[in-house]
Amino acid sequence: MTNKEFVIRLQEICRKYDECYGPYPESMFQELLVFSDIIAHLGELLNEHDGWDGHHGKLLRPEIAYYVFNLLLSILTKSVPVPHLMLMSDGGLQIEWHKKGWDIEISISSLSSVTIYIYSKTQQYEDTYHVPADDFQSFRALTAHISN
After folding, report:
1. Rounded distance between C-alpha atoms, residue 124 and residue 18, angstroms
2. 146 Cβ partners below 8 Å, 6+ apart?
3. Long-range pairs for 111-116 at CB < 8 Å and ≥24 separation?
4. Domain count, the chain
5. Cα(59)–Cα(147) distance, integer angstroms
6. Burial class (CB in 10 A: 0-12, 13-18, 19+), 83
């Protein structure tokens, strides 16, 4: 998927929302601003150059950016803070939260399996595991640790 195809797909999502639900209600305005910021940030990350890390960092793959956008659409709520998005040198993307004593990192290098790292010093808990990329329920469960 090219950058242009990625933008077109995002526009399709917005159009489908309008068709199903009508114009965005006023109460969703803040949420839309968050997602427009995420879209802008993903666009910036897609425009990085080869070797962005000073070595051999690969370009962010558009299908990974599109997947991350859809994942965030499914797990972000008013009570879940906006994560940090970090490029990975293999062309993937990492989603990070460091809130309420928890470190949660979701690493996406392929669309088949996603790696999750979760750590809390106060809870004396640390784990790394792999989940299928379509297991959005596992991702939603993680956000309970950092919800406001």
Report:
1. 45
2. 80, 81, 97, 99, 100, 102, 104
3. 111/63, 111/64, 111/67, 116/142
4. 1
5. 31
6. buried
Contact between 129 and 113 (Cβ < 8 Å): no
pTM of the model: 0.77
Token code pair at residue 135: 């297991």
**Residue 103 three-state SS:** strand
Higher pLDDT, 62 or 39: 62
Tell me the C-alpha distance between 41 and 49, whole Å. Answer: 15
* Residue 45 lies in domain: 3-145
- Taking the C-alpha atoms of residue 107 and residue 117, their distance in angstroms, rounded to an integer, is 8
Percent of all residues in the chain with a pLDDT value above 90, rounded to a whole number:
32
For residue 143, give both structure tokens.
Answer: 């956000």
The pLDDT of residue 21: 55
Q: From 89, 148, 91, 83, select the one nearest 116 (Cα to Cα).
A: 83
